[in-house]
Write a structure and sequence with these properties.
D-Maltodextrin-Binding Protein, domain 2, globular, 15% strand, 18 helices
């Protein structure tokens, strides 16, 4: 997932839910089977028409990298292809599908997958990928709907703990004090809280607090979004824990320190630690180059389990594409080990395939904790309509300091169960 898209998760519920509503509401049902088009390798469409590729770019670096990669594939394959960086990806995707002229290949978000898959707009090509077994299993689950692996995850991000090393040293803390459990996290947050800054901060939304829920109670839904788990006792314990930190003053949500997201709270040094994803590295380099920091894994829950959230997009292929065969070949090219490592160097995302892990760790030794999270990460809920429920949850979580966690989670559980009936 690109830094721009990930940083949009600062207000993830609102932005992603709007996208989901747009996308799921306008599909025109290009297949009469009520689900995505599933074909065998010999059934893929083929034509002389050039491919169109629509991306949601984080900036010039990403646009250039993808354009150059597609051009290299085009030269190799002999198939013409053009890349368009959308000004509003959700809107342009929905307009293309509504008009019956979708792009052949495009960035597809997890929250919109179910809507497009259920109305037959997407080609379920995942099982045809030559490298299908190389993708992290947790990422494949994020793009599996109704038992079908739809599309290749293009890259991903996870959440971990970011520490201001100057503030850490000033508080008298050493490497031995890096928290490995929640009790220790509270302790160091208390020591780091001082005039002008709080010990810990994050955005007040599921896309951040959910990391603690995943560790202790499983999050809002199970890994494949087929069961609501919001009211699990561990989720209540997780929110109770965070509420206690808020009430003690050692933690504040980003909005409560006057920041738009955790990266801003950290970069402006209003927080000594934040829970954020690897997209924060770009913000630190570009906007706050003087702030020294290190990344460590989020501490484990009382159960001993680690947890984090992952964020990703896939390369969607339109069921109506007249050249699905070439589109599949392009996706395999773009998700190959060397190409994903090249993308990582160009604009920062982590490769979605396991074969790139060792090289990525060598290239990014200070960011290894983010990739370690792939082993225990869980995606955002992908059930059709779940984005709306997450939005409602986010609206309540901002006032967690004075709210009852169980009441919030019981309400969310009912809303999610209603989606699954």
């Amino acid at each position: 997932m690109t830094r721009k898209i990930s940083r949009a998760l600062i207000s993830t519920g609102a932005l992603l839910a709007v996208g989901a509503l747009t996308l799921t509401g306008c599909g025109s049902g290009f297949s009469d089977n009520g689900g995505g088009s599933t074909t065998g390798a010999g059934d893929l469409t083929s034509s002389d028409k050039p491919l169109t590729v629509l991306i949601g770019s984080s900036g010039d670096a990403e646009t250039t990298a993808v354009t150059d990669a597609v051009a290299a594939w085009s030269k190799k394959s002999g198939v013409k292809a053009t890349v368009t960086a959308a000004s509003d990806l959700n809107q342009q995707l929905s307009q293309g599908f509504a008009a019956g002229t979708p792009s052949d290949v495009f960035y597809q978000s997890t929250d919109a997958l179910a809507g497009y898959a259920s109305n037959g707009s997407l080609l379920a090509y995942g099982d045809q990928l030559k490298n299908k077994d190389d993708f992290y299993e947790t990422l494949k689950k994020s793009f599996t709907y109704d038992g079908k692996f739809y599309c290749a995850p293009k890259d991903f991000s996870t959440l971990q703990l970011i520490i201001n090393t100057d503030m850490w040293q000033k508080a008298g803390l050493t490497d031995a004090d890096v928290p490995t459990d929640w009790e220790q996290l509270t302790s160091v947050a208390k020591k780091l809280t001082a005039d002008g800054h709080v010990g810990l901060s994050m955005s007040g939304e599921y896309a951040r607090v959910g990391a603690f829920m995943v560790a202790d109670g499983g999050g809002l839904m199970n890994a494949d979004s087929t069961k609501a788990t919001a009211d699990a006792p561990g989720n209540v314990e997780a929110l109770d824990y965070l509420k206690g930190m808020l009430n003690s003053g050692v933690m504040k949500f980003a909005a409560d320190v006057g920041a738009g997201w955790g990266g801003e709270a950290f970069g402006t040094q209003k927080a000594a630690m934040v829970v954020e994803g690897n997209w924060i590295t770009g913000a630190m380099t570009n906007d706050y180059p003087g702030v020294k920091y290190k990344v460590v894994e989020l501490p484990a829950a009382p159960s001993g389990n680690k947890g984090t959230l992952q964020f990703t997009n896939c390369w969607g292929i339109a069921a109506d594409s007249p050249n699905q065969k070439a589109a599949l070949d392009l996706v395999e090219y773009l998700t190959a080990t060397d190409q994903q490592l090249a993308f990582s160097k160009a604009f920062g995302p982590m490769p979605s395939i396991q074969s790139a892990a060792d090289q990525w760790k060598q290239d990014n030794p200070d960011l290894v904790p983010f990739l370690e999270g792939a082993a225990y990460a869980q995606g955002m809920p992908t059930a059709k309509g779940a984005a709306d429920v997450v939005t409602d949850f986010n609206g309540q979580i901002g006032s967690l300091a004075t709210a009852d966690p169980k009441t919030i989670l019981d309400s969310t559980q009912k809303n999610l169960e209603a989606l699954l009936k």
